[in-house]
Amino acid sequence: MKVRTLSMVAALVAASLNVAKADTLRMECAPTGAGKEFCDYVKDRFETQTGHTLEFIEFPPSSDEKLGLFQQLFAARDGNAVDLFQADTVWVGLLDRHTLDLTEQVAELEADFFPGAWQNNIVNGRVKAVPAFLDSGALYYRQDLLEKYGEQPPASWEELTRIATRIQEGERAAGHRNFWGLVFQGKSYEGLTCNALEWVASHGGGDFVDSDGQVTIDNARAARALDMAAGWVGTIAPQGALGYMEEEARAVFQNGGALFMRNWPYAYVLAQADNSPVKGKVGVMPLPSGAEGESVAALGGWQWSVSAYSKNPEAAVALLKIVSDAEAQKKALQLVGVAPSRVALYEDPEVLAMAPYLAEFRDIFANARPRPATQTRGQYARVSNAIYNATYNVLSGRSSGEQAVADLQSRLERIKGKDWR
Ligand code: GLC
Predict the structure, then answer these.
(1) Which residue would you say has higher pLDDT here, 282 or 3?
(2) Residue ranges per domain, the chain?
(3) Which residue from 95, 135, 184, 187 has its CB within 8 A of the most atoms of ligand 1, so it is best to mutate?
(4) Residues 360, 343: Cα–Cα separation, whole Å
(5) CATH class for the domain made up of 138-298+378-416
(6) How many angstroms separate the CA atoms of 146 and 266, rounded?
(7) How far is the CA of 177 from the centre of ligand 1 (A)?
(8) Which superfamily, per CATH, for 2-135+300-369?
(9) What pLDDT, in 10s, does the model give residues 145-192?
């Protein structure tokens, strides 16, 4: 009896100490639209489990702008800025110095995640992040319109161009004045590097920098791929696509304004949602192949990382474990459409009922092509900047494909110097 009373007192003291130590943690979460429901769900679980408070911060939507902001925040070593955040697949190495080493804390999670995604986050033998969701480029199409015109989903870019031209003309003649054949991400930013990689590599033009670190972009196939994309602008794709990121492209497609769209998996759940004008009319497939080439999807994805300056790393890791568990990943799929990074969820009946197309994506993920981030080491941000600027110059008619790949070759060689570091 006495022992029991003592342990109760100890528990009460511990509880009050915990309350006294309650901290406020900050997590990246965009509290808008469906995202808000996801943020609230996480907040509820975290606060109930730990007694701490969770606040959200929103970052710019573009990957490269976001990276710039994180680099500034981390340079100031501000422990109050952010505790848990998402790092793009291509930046885990770049942010190495500023993120917590999670090797011990997350060791038991490894077997549950896709091995490729897990490996991406190991820097110098240490686990620096946990995969939040998988991404790879895919082609969306309007099933109803292909049927109306007796066309099949396109296997090559050439076919895509032909079908898009034909159906765009047909729909415009039928009174849909603003209808476009294709939308993609043509703004000068990280997303354009992904689109450019898909065009160039699918034409057999390489990956800009090969796995040994050699710059390979100055070749005729790469030039041809960029010229092909430039030929779409103002014909089957709106001039405005030169300002599109993912959400702008999705807005046009989801409102019924385009036949084809290049985008990431999240767009599927949203396009098929009850409030979507194209609900039930959308198909998704691997991206088309280039002439004499193959279908190539850029590998994307985001990773949960803890700031090395967090004032309460233990609570931040507890939060990371909540957002990384199977229940949270299902919630994220349901609300924001992002594809799970946990293997078992691809066989989970609830997941398959909610997102049957994930079976298709699983193969696309397995073969997705990484951007040249690993081999270019600390220089990747500059490398990508050079790639999307060169691509943008071709899309906007300022440069021919041939000129652009020659210029990009020397630019990348200059960034490389003696070697990537
Ligand atoms: C997606 C991808 C990410 C990529 C970005 C480009 O968010 O997951 O890897 O950098 O798109 O816009």
Answers:
(1) 282
(2) 2-135+300-369, 138-298+378-416
(3) 135
(4) 14
(5) alpha beta
(6) 22
(7) 31
(8) Periplasmic binding protein-like II (3.40.190.10)
(9) 999 999 999 999 999 999 999 999 999 999 999 999 999 999 999 999
